[in-house]
Design brief:
Order of helices and strands: EHEHEHEHEHHEEEEEEH
Structural class: alpha/beta
Oligomer: single chain
Distance between the termini: 29 Å
Number of helices: 7
CATH topology of the largest domain: Rossmann fold
Strand content: 35-45%
CATH class of the largest domain: Alpha Beta
Largest sheet: 6 strands, antiparallel, barrel
Radius of gyration: 21 Å
CATH architecture of the largest domain: 3-Layer(aba) Sandwich
Helix content: 25-40%
Amino acid sequence: MSRKILIVDHSATIRRILRTMTLANINDAEVIEAENTTDATAILHNHTVNLILFSGESNSERWLDFIDATKSEAANERLNFVLFTSRPCEKSFAKARAAGVTAQLVTPCTAATFTETINRACNPTLLRESRRYNIPGSTATLTQGAISLATKVINISQGGILCELPLPEAMNWAAPVTATVNFPDSNGDARVVDNLFAVISSYFVQTRNPDHSPKLVRIALRFLQIPEDAAATLEKVFRQAAKEEQIV
């Protein structure tokens, strides 16, 4: 899974320089740009972002308010911030750190320093553990060749899905699966996410028949490929689920 890094600065030149450094040194980075906190907030409402790289030359009080408001939302609980500045000031950084900023990056800097700072603030290994969501009423259809299986979705994340269904006798456990997921929304309509290419990573027996053979099983699938439109829909569904969890 790529790390989504949001670069925020009023200067298009600075954003371009940071974008170039990011893509040159972080091999799994996906970069988004914003000119100010207003644009950044709009982006966060439509995208899952892992790290925000922002300028210390920006209005500090506005940034502190932005960080506080952003971190208060459940959907952004794993979001990290890195402050970059050309004029290092420990006093200013102490205030930013208290607000939730992870690291300070003094520019210009070497490629090694840039990479180390980004990796320290946003560890790619930790991101492999995607947050799982339980969304009541969600179902999935697993397709494998001529086989099509209707399942109940137990939980789903950006990395995979856990489904429950009667033991599928004809399934090839070693072959890939294409999943189509149906999410009910608050208006009663359904959001469909399809063409999720996955492999079976494990399965668990939930109930057994009188002869002790498996009856109901749960199958864990790991996504190998998610189309862009499907990824966008998943982000919206997850953000809505996180908001509802926060309300509850």
